[in-house]
Amino acid sequence: MTEESEFCLEEAKEGMQNTLVHLEKEFQKIRAGKASPQMLDGVKVDYYGSMTAIDKVANIGSPDPRQIIVQPWEKSMLAPIEKAIMAANLGFNPQNNGEVLRIQVPPLTEERRKGLVKQAKTEAENTKVSIRSIRRNAMETAKKLKKDGVPEDEIAKLEEEIQKATDGYIERVDKSFDAKEKDIMTV
Q: By the 8 A CB rule, do 162 and 43 touch?
């Protein structure tokens, strides 16, 4: 394959890999009944007038599967962190003991589990759409290369490789979703 073809294929694979990494991050945010510090990702705290990620102003840990502990680096930040967690609408009610915030993670109901599976499925579908969009752009690039004089048999091979990569990444998305669904539905 020519350098342009190789570049087109590598660029497509890199884009697909990035969408897969994004999916994994989104799956970490969907709680599966076990407490994890990632549940608080995305919570922003008012830190002296600027909105800052919670993990930049506090230490977050999970000593057991039912509890998250948030220990701010400055005691004066306890109330703003508590307020930010409540405002994030995650369904948590932190308890402030003057030193740390304890968040009890309630066990999931069957209905809530099904809702989380639906949310995970939506994320997986969005990822598949992104992967197909990357494939479409790569195929368009291949057609441009054909117009620029790259041999037809090489373009056919390139398109075949792009499709093979797409199928592989879609399969990985499905496996990732199946694992997350099993994790969520396990009581």
A: no
